[in-house]
Amino acid sequence: MNQYLTDQQQQILDYITHEIDNTGLAPTLHQIVYVLEIRSTNLVMNQLNVLEQKGWIMFDPFQSRGIRLTENIPSYRLTICGSVEEGRIAFDRAV
């Protein structure tokens, strides 16, 4: 898989990830165009197709909000499971 992304591809991917993390929904093409101040929806569609070819997203251009992230996106969430024993925290594991 080619992981190299252009600046614009990275901006689009970051915005998609941000929207999905914050709203639970992928942005529409028009939202991407407006927020990132890109010239046209056609340019965004081309970049989404490239992101799909590179394995970062799955993209269905015929479905509204048809962008899905793949497992290649690094997650920055950290879940820590632990318990408090005698006033000290004892961690069972970190995921």
TrEMBL record:
Keywords, sorted A to Z: Hydrolase
Keyword Protein biosynthesis tagged: no
GO molecular function, a single term: serine-type endopeptidase activity
Gene: lexA_4
Protein name: LexA repressor
Membrane-spanning residues: none
A family per Pfam: LexA_DNA_bind
GO biological process, one term: proteolysis
The keyword Plastid is annotated on this UniProt entry: no
Enzyme Commission code: 3.4.21.88
Location of the LexA repressor DNA-binding domain: 3-66
